[in-house]
Amino acid sequence: MSTWNPDTLKRIAAAEELHIAPKGDDGSWRKPTTIWVVCDGDELYVRSWRGTRGAWWNTAQNSHTGHISAGSIEADVTFAAVSDPAVNDRVDNAYRAKYGHYSSYVEPMISEPARATTLRLLPQP
């Protein structure tokens, strides 16, 4: 499993928004979607605000690969589903800490439908 370069991790984690483009069934990149990204330790996580109805998330679930841009970083990634409740609790806390000033938007991001879509972003070598 690949790990993030510390400087790259820091820059992506500090970005307010991330643009995510999962690879479609036909091998082309889906149009980028702007989402939030959080960091827990040395890992980056994203969720779908729309839960499993999120189009970008469904594409990511099928292909498990995509491209991100944030903090002037461009990277190809692998998406890994997260089901561990302890990890999801830490990701909830990361969303609260980073985006708490958007209180009406944070609550849906830490709801059960959003938690069910938590993906870890792994850098591709």
Automatic annotation (TrEMBL):
InterPro entries: UCP028498. This is DUF2255 family protein.
